[in-house]
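quick one
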Amino acid sequence: MTTIKLHNTQTRKKEVFAPIDPDNVRMYVCGPTVYDRAHLGNARPVLVFDVLFRLLRHVYGADHVTYVRNFTDVDDKINDTARKRKEAGAKGTLEELIAERTEETISWYHADMDELGALRPAIKGLQTEEAEPRATDWIGAMIAMIEDLIAKGHAYAAEGHVLFAVDSYANYGALSGRSVDDMIAGARVEVAPYKRNPMDFVLWKPSDAETPGWDSPWGRGRPGWHIECSAMSFELLGASFDIHGGGNDLQFPHHENEIAQSKCAHPEGDFANVWMHNEMLQVEGKKMSKSLGNFFTVRDLLDQGVPGEVIRFVMLGTHYRKPMDWTEKKRDEAEKTLRKWLALAAKKPIGQVSKSVIEALADDLNTAGALTALHEVYKRGDGETMAASLQFLGLRLGNMAYWVGDDTSDLSRFSERLSNLRDTAKATKDFSELDAFKAALTAFGVEVRMSKEGVELFPGPDFDPTKLEGLL
Ligand code: AMP
Ligand code: ZN
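structure w/ adenosine monophosphate:
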């Protein structure tokens, strides 16, 4: 069995991955807050952990891997977006506008990520709604966890809020390597009179009549963001699971808080054994983010005609622990390379995924190394391995007409022409026109096979359908 090594943020080392239960390898990745279209930065964790998901399925079998990614559908940003829409004249109650917005955003998210070739999360190979839990479906579990934390002396209720007491958990800050004092000095903490320590964070907060809320022992209110992931991962994956992922920006405070909550509520478990964080997609040295306004959405790119495979290829070109920029140069190079590779793979039976691709990915998801390995496969002209490897990497999404032309129908027009020219040549004994046409096809990357039975054309690795058009 392939040995997978992964870099663990918790130990700051690359470690051999040993799942708790190889029959059910379990991974949790923090999903989006659903108030707006995903920007390109949001697609990075999706693609990074999609590659990991694919690798785990390859090594352990698809039915033995569980991947859960949540939707945060209760959040002040969502409420604010709905409030603005209401002020702008949208019809309906705030609650209705919120529901409309979250539903719409979830369907956008699915459509956009599907076009990037990202597999939907799944429980033991089964794509169910549980694999993409919505926070609002798990409020009961969150309330139960908060009650448990209060009972165990790790949380306290104050003025309709419930807060986690960071002083009650000695390891608070271990993941990101900070002490509570450093955090207070460095972070913008919300100072509130009801907090015992300024770093104490909210597990539950009160909702006014208009804002979404649920009845609880502390009055009508809503959960804090961090408790969502702790409660849902416990319900769906248990007190100990294998991998927890997300962007680097979530390390502190979100993941630090998830660890504190989960370890204190379930001291019998380890929570997550391996913590993985992708670096940020940047724009001119700064994190792409909604708040900085320096973003464009995945849908913007798709609408401009950039194929999902190209976006994915560019993302895979940089290791996940390195910051990266999206540039037009990278986009153009990706398009060119993919066109060659997909043409080589077109019409070839699916062979075996390249061993070098698997080896590169097993080394802490060296996606750039996997692409380098495919350059070698291309040089060897091994279309079957190329087809299997591109499919495995999610780079062969089926819109082959775009990549290699609608080759069956298009090429049939060329072979018809070729047959006619051959007939004419036989009759006139003048082969010059036939030979010129054959040479042109070859020059544009089409392999020509002529026999007594007829004429057959095959798109080769350098096949360029755009140039061919001018021939007829
Ligand atoms: P959010 O909806 O802001 O919570 O983000 C959803 C996911 O996208 C989280 O895993 C974030 O870490 C990740 N993310 C946000 N911005 C970027 C970025 N510029 N580059 C890479 N990942 C990002
Ligand atoms: Zn989370």
